[in-house]
């Protein structure tokens, strides 16, 4: 299980703990920072902070489940897949997300979805977690009607 | 904190927060260098020009590996065999480098201050890879990163820098990186190779001069040995290399005066048996190889931060 920073890694840690508690299986857990793989680095005009990725196991010939909070354009997942294959050659990469809000810009689809939430492009989906100092909530903030 | 600087010329006017930001980014880059495939696409389409008007292999290769690990295009221009040797002025060289479309110019030059001259005359970001006796900021930052990694925290730590202080841009940049992070620096070396004002007590903030190396090392948290340029002897500044080795060389016995496990650094290339004994250079306290790896990571962090500053965006 590899969570995408920041927030996907927190959700991955939760899932990891739940699997350990319920199934008594300790799935190898890592976190991935995808900043250096973003496709908009040369356009955003500043250098976002790169955080350390921690993948303390070989991913060769294993099934890796990428975990993120919200699936939107798919660009983050594209970057995460590019980053992941720099660590080895997994047998397969799967994708698990808490919320799929649609509006893909790349041909990417999640394998495991907590909830599909139809949204407008300009809406905002805000995920808060206890670990980041909020309550566990997913909020759909609709764009003000034009 | 958003990165604001366009150039890395010296760190003498950097805040603690800026230095820490670079060191934190360096940590992420060290992890990238540990991957089976050490290349990320962050600087794709950017051009880094390595302009070395003074001999260097280690630093140049380190920058080259750093730029390549971020997928930048790298062009090398060395003094020998280039237009510099044919008498081109620095001003004209800069015009050419800028016209070639470099996004970042990494430069080494024998004249102190040369990178400032270049930075005023180009749209590219300039990184000083060593200018005369003045500064070698990436070395200072990588030494700070290496020491922080070994000691955990530099607040209240005392680091000894020993050797030819006068002619050392490494010593100056080490001071500029270590003191803002809360360390104090004890400078030691032959009086002929220490600036006279520093010998008389007017040392830079956070530093002191201790002419007796044994006393400088007593209880220290780490030591950086500087490379001795052998031509200093011919200039009449040293009686003999052997005497230097005896009085100022880091022997196994000497390093034991420091706290247990206090690390030993050297910017390289080393004169083993002169400023450092082979057994110390390759001993348990030595972080000299770690410095080399960290050097690539620190340069990646700076290239990444500079290429992202607004003025650089096309």
Structure description:
- The complex is a heterodimer of chains A (146) and B (314).
- Chain A has 146 residues and is of the alpha/beta class.
- Chain A has one domain: Rossmann fold (3-Layer(aba) Sandwich).
- Chain A is built from three helices and seven strands, in the order E-H-E-H-E-H-E-E-E-E.
- In chain A, the strands form two sheets. In chain A, strands 2-1-3-4-5 form a five-stranded parallel β-sheet, sandwiched between helices. A two-stranded antiparallel sheet of chain A has the order 6-7.
- Chain A is globular.
- The model of chain A has no long low-confidence stretch (mean pLDDT 94).
- With 314 residues, chain B is of the alpha/beta class.
- Chain B has two domains: 16-135 and 293-312, Rossmann fold (3-Layer(aba) Sandwich), CATH 3.40.50.1370; 137-287, Rossmann fold (3-Layer(aba) Sandwich), CATH 3.40.50.
- In chain B, 49% of the residues are buried.
- Chain A binds chain B through residues 33, 35-38, 41-54, 82-83, 85-88, and chain B through 2-3, 24-25, 27-29, 31-32, 35-42, 44-46, 70, 304-305, 307-310, 313-314.
Could you give the topology of this structure?
The complex is a heterodimer of chains A (146) and B (314).
Chain A lengths: L1 E3 L3 H16 L6 E3 L8 H4 L18 E9 L3 H10 L7 E9 L11 E5 L7 E5 L8 E5 L5
Parallel strand pairs in A: 1-2, 1-3, 3-4, 4-5
Antiparallel strand pairs in A: 6-7
Chain B lengths: L15 H18 L13 E6 L5 H12 L3 E6 L11 H10 L4 E6 L4 H6 L5 E7 L5 H15 L6 E5 L6 H10 L5 E5 L7 H4 L7 E3 L3 H5 L4 E4 L5 H4 L6 H8 L3 H4 L8 E2 L12 H4 L6 H20 L7
Parallel strand pairs in B: 1-2, 1-3, 3-4, 5-6, 5-8, 6-7, 8-9
Identify the CATH class of the largest domain in chain B. Alpha Beta
Rg estimate of chain A, integer Å: 16 Å
Count up the helices of chain B: 13
Sheet-strand content of chain A, in percent, reads 25-35%
CATH topology of the largest domain in chain B: Rossmann fold
Question: Would you tell me the overall average pLDDT of chain A?
Answer: 94
Chains forming the largest contact: A-B, 25 and 29 residues
Largest sheet of chain A: 5 strands, parallel
Q: On the 0-100 scale, what is the average pLDDT of chain B?
A: 93
Q: How many strand elements of chain A? A: 7
Under CATH, the topology of chain A is which?
Rossmann fold
Distance between the termini of chain A: 41 Å
Order of helices and strands of chain A: EHEHEHEEEE
The proportion of residues forming helix of chain B, as a percent range, comes to 25-40%
Question: What's the architecture of chain A in CATH terms?
Answer: 3-Layer(aba) Sandwich
Shape descriptor of chain A reads globular
